[in-house]
Amino acid sequence: MAKKNPDKLSDQIDAGVKTAISKAIERHRRLGESISILKDGKVVTLNADQIPPLDEPKNNDLLDNT
Question: Which keywords does this Swiss-Prot/TrEMBL entry list (predicted)?
Answer without folding.
Answer: Plasmid
